[in-house]
Amino acid sequence: MTTGEAGATSTLRCELLGPLRASRDGVEIPLGPPKQRAVLAVLLLQEARPISYDGLVEAVWGGAPPVHVRNLVQKYVSGLRRALGDDAELTWTGSGYRLTGVHADDLRQRRELVAEAVAARDTGELRRAAELAGRAERLWRGEFAEGLRTPYLAAERLRWAEKRLTVLEARLAGLIELGHSFECVHELVRLVAAHPLRERLSELLMLALYRAGRPSDALTAYEAVRQRLAEAMGSDPGPGLRSLHARVLRQDLALLPPPRVPSG
């Protein structure tokens, strides 16, 4: 954020929870070719820490960079300086390239929302925790750094996909505990279809179905994930799924839904 001569404030915002996007005062900024955008994404993820020249090359091109990679790095750094303008500072520190004055704002917002959601959950404020986790989820616009194919960002994409699923699972578990099982079933069916071997999602789907008055469907969901695990991995469901399956079979009264907490 900078202040111009007339006192007007200019706000530069960058986002990574989807295609990389930068905007100034709400107007999107052209960021150049894909590799230049990848350099920016890598620099943003350093959070104002310097990254060495070799580290930047490895992150963007992997172990087989092009012959003229040094010229390319200099070209992309210059291009980013022009694109970001005076709102950000991209410098060579002697130990590496360092980007300051701009952040991955959506990552910061998500981190804060998730921390607040965890704190709310730990104090028993399940409805507030679910609302905060939902706000964190709505920050996503697609895959992490979508469309940028580099070794470093590919690894980060997997890491952030796992973080996203973990928060989704916690949010849905909270909603089920609040008595909103029926509303969760559709989303869980979609998530299980997208992640068929993720046992926690199948466990939540079984619980939501049972509490929505569909015990036979809960048992069908268990059999489906059992078959998928056997075919894909040659293994049985883990203890969480097996325990829930046994409790559904014996119609454990403790699985009955709690009194519904109004969502308003």
Describe this structure in words.
By secondary structure, this protein is mainly alpha-helical. It contains ten helices and seven strands. The chain has helices spanning 34-45, 53-61, 69-84, 105-122, 126-137, 151-177, 181-194, 199-211, 215-233, 239-249; strands at residues 2-3, 9-10, 12-15, 21-24, 27-28, 89-92, 97-100. Strands 3-4-5 form a three-stranded antiparallel beta sheet. A hairpin with a 5-residue loop joins strand 1 (2-3) and strand 2. Helix 4 packs antiparallel against helix 5, helix 7 (181-194) packs antiparallel against helix 8 and helix 8 (199-211) packs antiparallel against helix 9. The relative contact order is 0.10. Mean pLDDT is 92; it is low at 1-8.
Topology (SSEs and partners):
Layout: E1 2-3, E2 9-10, E3 12-15, E4 21-24, E5 27-28, H1 34-45, H2 53-61, H3 69-84, E6 89-92, E7 97-100, H4 105-122, H5 126-137, H6 151-177, H7 181-194, H8 199-211, H9 215-233, H10 239-249
Antiparallel strand pairs: 1-2, 3-4, 4-5, 6-7
Helix pairs in contact: 1-3, 4-5, 5-6, 6-7, 6-8, 7-8, 8-9, 8-10, 9-10
Please describe the structure with a list of short key phrases separated by commas or semicolons:
264 residues, mainly alpha, 3-stranded antiparallel beta sheet, two-stranded antiparallel ribbon, 10 helices, disordered N terminus
Average pLDDT rating:
92
Task: Identify the quaternary structure here.
Answer: single chain
Report how far the terminal alpha carbons are from each other. Answer: 37 Å
Low-confidence stretches: 1-8
Report the principal-axis shape.
Answer: elongated
The amount of beta strand, in percent, is 5-15%
What helical percentage do the residues reach?
55-70%
Counting DSSP E segments of at least 2 residues, the number of strands comes to 7
Pairing-aware structural class of the strands and helices? Answer: mainly alpha
Strand order of the largest sheet: 3-4-5
Number of helices: 10
What radius of gyration results from the CA coordinates?
Answer: 23 Å
